[in-house]
Amino acid sequence: MKPFMKEERGSFTIEATLVFPAFLFFVLAGVFFCIVIFQMGIANYVAQKATAQVAYTWNNSNKDLTTGEFGEKQYTGLDGDGLYWRVTDNGVLDMFGLGGLFESEDSVKRKKIQNGISTYNGSIEVDIDYENYIVYSEVKATATTNLFMPSFFKDILGRDQLEATSSRVVTDTPELIRTFNFSKYIWKESGLGSVYDGIKESINNFFGGG
Fold it and tell me: Which site among 4, 128, 190, 194 is 20 to 30 Å from 89 CA-CA?
């Protein structure tokens, strides 16, 4: 037994047998980690692109999601959306739990959301939603992708899917101007403007008199 323990022949084989499985595990773990990062990046890219382009074209459902182009007769009020779609078909009533009162299956809001979903939904599942907070509105998207790797690694991660979310504020300049003018009108007609001016004048007189 002693001559065998002192013998150096075969030591490399024994060391390799002990080290190689651990080395192989770390290599595979690194590869799978890179796959997770790659898939997460793709899902995040799809979610951000969907929200950006749907938000950009939100003021007209006939706009092309990529270029923003629309037909000569497809201006708002002429064809498709109608002139007053922002009043009853822009998610305003959702805040009060009355979203389904005027909203139908073929509503403008649903059409815009469905355009985005049908464009970006594929190997990566995309779900798009829209929220109107009166002061501002935003488009939200969730991109879900399956993990393409052995089941044992999915068990280690505790999941078999990855999700990425993104949101983008809808920029609608005409609507912003109308909202500002309406708020200004309400402020003036309600008498709050004169009350504010009176308080401001009183403060100025107090400090000016001091």
Answer: 190
Strand partners, 145: 162
Range of the domain at 150: 2-171
Does one domain contain both 187 and 114?
A: no
Cβ neighbours for 52, distance < 8 A, ≥ 6 positions apart: 168
The per-residue pLDDT for range 82-93, each reduced to its tens digit, is 666 676 666 666
Q: Give the C-alpha distances (Å, rounded to integers) separating 97 from 50, 136, 155, 193.
A: 26, 18, 40, 31
Question: In terms of domains, do 86 and 177 share one?
Answer: no
Backbone angles phi, psi at 132, to 5 degrees: -115, 120
> Is the pTM value of this prediction over 0.85?
no
Whether residues 107 and 192 fall in one domain: no
